[in-house]
Amino acid sequence: MENFAIHMLEELRITLPAGQALVNIAGATDRYALFKAGPVLSASVSISQKLIKLFCNFQQYLSQFAPFFIIFFGH
Predict the structure, then answer these.
(1) SS (H, E, C) the chain
(2) pLDDT higher for 27 or 49?
């Protein structure tokens, strides 16, 4: 997810101030990673296949309120 956040910074032409870097907001956990790159929140969550149906239902629920969002599945 850090690579995706760096890519979004480049695409949005956002430069970080000197001495700053992207940091995993979630802290020291191996369960998920969370990075904020400008207006983009990049999250990686380790879920089992049993939770995919629940996740898809949640995505459908969010689509009622969010004008625009992208969900990317990948390793």
Answers:
(1) CHHHHHHHHHHCCCCCCCCCCCCCCCCCCCCEEEEEECCEEEEEECCCHHHHHHHHHHHHHHCCCCCCCCCCCCC
(2) 27
Long-range contacts, stretch 16-20, CB < 8 angstroms, 24+ apart? none
Total residue count of the chain as it appears in this document: 75
Give pLDDT tens digits for 2-12: 888 888 889 88
Provide the pLDDT confidence category of residue 27 given band limits of 50, 70 and 90: confident
Torsion sign (Cα): 8, 63, 59, 36: positive
pTM of the prediction?
0.57
